Amino acid sequence: AKGSAWRVYRRLLGYAWEYNGRLLVSVLFAFIVAASFSSVIVTVGTAINLLYADEAAVHDDISRIARKVGGAADWLEPLTGRNAETVEANVREYVSAMRANRSRTLYVLSGAVVAIALVGGLARFLQEYFAGAIGAYISVRLGEEMFANLMRMSIAFFERRTTGEILARFTNDIFMVNRGLANTFVKLFREPIKLVFYLTLALSVDWAL
Q1: DSSP character string of the chain
Q2: Taking the CB of residue 173, how many other CB atoms lie within 10 A of it?
Q3: From CA 209, how far away is CA 198, in angstroms rounded?
Q4: Structure pTM?
Q5: Contact assessment for residue 140 and residue 78, using Cβ atoms and an 8 Å cutoff
Q6: Among 193, 198, 191, which residue's Cα sits nearest to residue 42?
Q7: Residue pLDDT, tens place only, 135-147
């Protein structure tokens, strides 16, 4: 039974691959969904820590951030004119301005969270839209192929099966395939990507914990 089910899944994935452009777009939006949720965690956590932690802790955080972006800053120095030391100085100046006016910073932070949530929600909708479209296209094609196959059947075939059984293949069965494909493509791409983003974020905070 398991082998039979997997053969069916492989056949359906073969149908889906014919719409590889939509599949790739769906994967792209899945990345955006995962990145948006991760960005909210990073943005809120980092900002609150920089705003309300003591000076020594903030100094350490700035140094850690500077080390992370320092390599990229040095690599991009010919284009940006900024190296790691310049970036660290700019970050310290920006954090000092944030701590000097915490209320304004919290308003900006709240707006940023809302904006990220809107982007993530829109990406989620578009990913489900493209995944659902693939399922709908496959369902239409299955219906056409089933009808063409039905027209080749003998009279004896129709004598052995009721009209309701045949119609159920075109209605209920195709509907279930469509529903299953839509849910599969949504979760198949989005959930593993979210797992990678969240796991990476967690390990970057404290790998041992």
Answers
A1: -HHHHHHHHHHHHHHHHTTHHHHHHHHHHHHHHHHHHHHHHHHHHHHHHHHHS-HHHHHHHHHHHHHHHHHHHHHTHHHHS--HHHHHHHHHHHHHHHHHTHHHHHHHHHHHHHHHHHHHHHHHHHHHHHHHHHHHHHHHHHHHHHHHHHTT--HHHHHHS-HHHHHHIIIIIHHHHHHHHHHHHHHHHHHHHHHHHHHHHHHHH-S--
A2: 15
A3: 14
A4: 0.69
A5: no
A6: 198
A7: 888 888 989 999 9
